[in-house]
């Protein structure tokens, strides 16, 4: 089995058997592309089944020399390990060369958080007299109100808006569905957008059920959401470096600061493991201090 055949088989496995989203599949395949690029440069005769641990350690050195960050290296090594687990399942290899391959140690970086005032400033900076104004306002309010991933936002369906019950039905990672509460303010902004802006668009076939559309009546791209937020941050001269995911972090941090337990936050964010959610406890010093005061015998 050559590299191209292996990669195609792995991609199909991720998409069909693992039911990963297109973005996740693309990320895993890019990890393998890095390995293939390294092999083509240094070991052109090497095939997936002849790769040894020594080759992979040279691969890690190569990533270091090319200025790839430790975090990206760790992510890539994880992808390569997943790739070889697939090859073992398919019996394309007899041994897994990644078993003793170590990832670089990376520290946990606390995410950037926006205050409620900063979010209000971003939303107030939107010119609602422009065609896209009502849409952009609804987008930011929904991101903050519901803590959605950007992929979940752009894929949000009209049929999954349950305004009477004040919930959204969200298809998250791995097609895992969850119900997320939505604020009255976000509901009001989405309704205004649907009635006064979206209704005037000529919607392309296949996008009739998508909530947020561009001026051509098609689904917004993830890059467009990034651009909208970056332009607003520049407009109000916000010194923090933010992205759509910053609104998700801010949503979770606000819940923890308000007293929500981590299990509830985990459910609303759609985290598979509570370990991912625990970072938000570390953002709230009062939460940590209160926990010590309540449970430590010396407090």
Describe this structure in words.
The model has no long low-confidence stretch (mean pLDDT 88). The chain has two domains: 3-89, DNA polymerase, domain 1, CATH 1.10.150; 116-291, Intergrase catalytic core (hpI Integrase, Chain A, Orthogonal Bundle), CATH 1.10.443.10. Helices cover 55% and strands 4% of the residues. It contains 14 helices and three strands. It is globular, with a radius of gyration of 23 Å. The chain has a three-stranded antiparallel sheet. It starts with a helix and ends with a helix.
Outline:
A hairpin with a 4-residue loop joins strand 1 (161-162) and strand 2. Helix content is 55%, strand content 4%.
The portion of residues forming beta strands comes to under 5%
CATH superfamily name of the largest domain? Intergrase catalytic core
Helix content: 55-70%
> What is the second-level CATH architecture of the largest domain?
Orthogonal Bundle
Query: At the first level of CATH, what is the class of the largest domain?
Result: Mainly Alpha
Gyration radius, rounded: 23 Å
DSSP E strands, number: 3
Helix/sheet category: mainly alpha
Outline the biggest β-sheet. 3 strands, antiparallel
What is the general shape? globular
Order of H and E elements? HHHHHHHEEEHHHHHHH
How many helical elements?
A: 14
- Intertermini distance: 63 Å
Q: Tell me the count of domains.
A: 2
CATH fold-type name of the largest domain:
hpI Integrase, Chain A
Question: What is the mean predicted local confidence, pLDDT?
Answer: 88
Low-pLDDT regions: none
Strand order of the largest sheet: 1-2-3
């Amino acid at each position: 089995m050559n590299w191209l055949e292996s990669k195609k088989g792995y991609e199909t496995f991720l998409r069909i058997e693992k039911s990963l989203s297109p973005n996740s599949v693309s990320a895993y395949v890019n990890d393998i592309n890095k390995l293939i690029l390294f092999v083509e440069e240094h070991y052109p005769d090497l095939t997936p089944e002849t790769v040894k641990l020594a080759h992979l350690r040279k691969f890690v050195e190569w990533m270091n020399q090319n200025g790839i960050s430790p975090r990206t290296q760790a992510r890539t090594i994880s992808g390569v390990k997943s790739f070889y687990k697939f090859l073992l399942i398919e019996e394309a290899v007899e041994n897994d060369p990644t078993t003793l391959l170590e990832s670089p140690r990376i520290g946990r970086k606390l995410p950037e958080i926006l205050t409620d005032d900063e979010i209000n400033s971003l939303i107030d900076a939107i010119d609602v007299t422009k065609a896209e104004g009502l849409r952009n306002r609804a987008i930011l309010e929904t991101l903050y109100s519901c803590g959605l991933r950007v992929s979940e936002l752009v894929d949000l369906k009209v049929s999954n808006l349950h305004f009477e019950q004040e919930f959204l039905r969200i298809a998250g990672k791995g097609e895992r569905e969850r119900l997320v509460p939505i604020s009255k303010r976000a509901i009001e902004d989405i309704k205004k957008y649907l009635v006064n802006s979206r209704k005037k668009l000529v919607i392309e076939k296949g996008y009739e059920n998508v909530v947020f559309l561009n001026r051509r009546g098609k689904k917004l791209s993830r890059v467009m959401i990034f651009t909208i937020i970056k332009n607003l941050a520049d407009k109000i001269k916000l010194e923090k470096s933010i992205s759509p995911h910053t609104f998700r972090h801010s949503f979770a941090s606000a819940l923890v600061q308000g007293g929500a337990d981590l299990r509830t936050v985990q459910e609303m964010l759609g985290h598979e493991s509570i370990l991912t959610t625990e970072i938000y406890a570390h953002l709230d010093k009062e939460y940590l201090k209160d926990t010590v005061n309540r449970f430590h015998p010396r407090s």
